[in-house]
Design brief:
The structure is a homodimer. By secondary structure, chain A is an alpha/beta fold. Chain A has 2 domains: 169 residues, HUPs (Rossmann fold), CATH 3.40.50.620; 94 residues, 2-Layer Sandwich (Pantoate--beta-alanine Ligase, Chain: A,domain 2), CATH 3.30.1300.10. Chain A has 10 helices and 10 strands. In chain A, the strands form 2 sheets. Chain A has a 6-stranded parallel β-sheet, sandwiched between helices. In chain A, strands 8-9-10 form a 3-stranded antiparallel β-sheet. In chain A, strand 2, helix 2 and strand 3 form a beta-alpha-beta unit. Chain A starts with a strand and ends with a strand. Chains A and B meet through strand 5, helix 6 and helix 7 of A and strand 5, helix 6 and helix 7 of B. Chains A, B: It comes from Candidatus Desulfolinea nitratireducens. Chains A, B: Keywords: ATP-binding, Cytoplasm, Ligase, Nucleotide-binding, Pantothenate biosynthesis.
């Protein structure tokens, strides 16, 4: 098993990075790792000569009303999981070094950040693209691994990498699910028992729409209505949005053809969950 | 003398870049090269193991009312000058490949782009930082060379590199001047004979303010008034702005102390010229 080296500053990263065998695979995370993260790390270890993982709960992608302070943390456990997975370098930058006084440069994708999560969380994706650009520039990976769970995030980062000519391959890994279909998320820990049980309704609604599609339904509105019906039947669930959109541009569809992203956001109590499914 | 290799596409660049000895020095230009550019190229050749020059008249840093179409071009001559200077790689990307359909990701520095040139040319620096980030990502240089002539551009790019953790050293080279003090610029070719003669008034005003500073003047307003008096005495000149600002932040000063940037923009007929001087 590799030795896991742990670093904090950009200068430590620069020195450690210089001696890593290439290609370098990079998995940026906000910590509190679950099976979903570990599937990314595993894939990175398989596909790269060395693997860097960052843990950084990025303040600029949270709104003032968001759950930044409440975001769950367990560094001891994360460290152990990454050691077992065979990661070479764990980078835990500080907010102070990431955003020093005078910081003022932002990376922003336009159209693709406007719908879905972007519509509900203004400024969120500007924070994401900015911090990911910073992490990429500092780590200089050849490959970076993201979870398909955050489908719009993957689409936005792919767009950024293409538009800004970053020499990095973006690899998206499938959603890892609990037995009842709930997509793994650090936020699942916020759910009480009843909410946890009700939370499988997100995936059920996606499967129902997929099933309708497989039976020949091509009206995007009909697929959205299938999902909506299932969510509204669950008394603990409160629907935020349902989308049936083009996979690359995230534009809402009228008629389904080509690669399609079904996605939704649902509140269970005060916890906001998202899920998605790709077909076509 | 080196062989000058000339390329157009990102793919050609990727292949050529892979075999360049490091450190790689990079000089991004808009072409129509003059002594100012060549001083940057010369410095790049002295300080780097290989040198890449780009020629790209970047549409996103021109406003619709700007002089994009009229911007002077002479590729034959540029090519010959770069060959003589010992440049390794000349990259002439196309606007179509730089900004393909669907392009939508921008890099933007905030506060530092607001005064001076940024105030007169809204959107200009967003175009500059975006294209420079793209060029940097594609060329992957260790050093990049800019002219101090565009003082705010240098400050903005330094800010971007620091904020986004780009592993690139920014080298700013002194302004190269004609015999009468006029700063070299591709736009000088727009001047008629009378305007050309009057154009030395920009540097004269900077020297007069510097002289007042050396005699002990520390009021920024007084230094601005010295400059303003000299510009308004020239009938062909029309003042746009005069600034006495902190060198790093570009904030206007009340009392001069520390590193200071005197700068101004002046119209001679329809041609807009800028100049600056650093002291302290």
């Amino acid at each position: 098993m590799n030795e896991l080296q742990e670093i904090v500053t950009f200068e430590e990263l620069r020195i450690a990075r210089a001696s890593l065998p290439e290609p370098v695979g990079f998995v940026p995370t906000m910590g509190f790792l679950h099976e979903g993260h570990l599937s990314l790390v595993k894939r990175a270890c398989e596909q790269s000569a060395s693997v860097v993982v960052s843990i950084f709960v990025n303040p600029t992608q949270f709104a003032p009303t968001d759950d930044l302070d409440a975001y769950p943390r367990d560094l001891e456990r994360d460290r152990e999981l990454l050691r077992e997975a065979g990661v070479d370098l764990l980078w835990i930058p500080t907010p102070e070094e990431m955003y020093p006084p005078g910081f003022q440069t932002w990376v922003e994708a336009e159209k693709i950040t406007k719908p879905l999560e972007g519509a509900k969380r203004p400024g969120h994706f500007r924070g994401v693209t900015t911090v990911v650009a910073k992490l990429f520039n500092a780590v200089q990976p050849q490959m970076a691994f993201f979870g398909q769970k955050d489908a719009q995030q993957v689409a936005v980062i792919r767009r950024m990498v293409r538009d800004l000519n970053m020499p990095i391959e973006i690899v998206a890994s499938p959603i890892i699910r609990e037995r009842d279909g709930l997509a793994m998320s650090s936020r699942n820990t916020y759910l009480n028992e009843a909410e946890r049980q009700a939370a499988s309704v997100l995936y059920k609604s996606l499967l129902a729409a997929q099933s309708a599609y497989k039976k020949g339904e091509r009206s995007a509105d009909s697929l959205r209505r299938v999902m909506e019906g299932i969510i509204t039947d669950e008394p603990l669930a409160r629907l935020e949005y349902i989308s049936c959109a083009d996979y690359d541009s995230l534009e809402e569809l009228t008629v389904v053809s080509g690669k399609t992203l079904l996605s939704l956001a649902v509140y269970l109590g005060r916890t906001r969950l998202i899920d998605n499914l790709v077909f076509g």
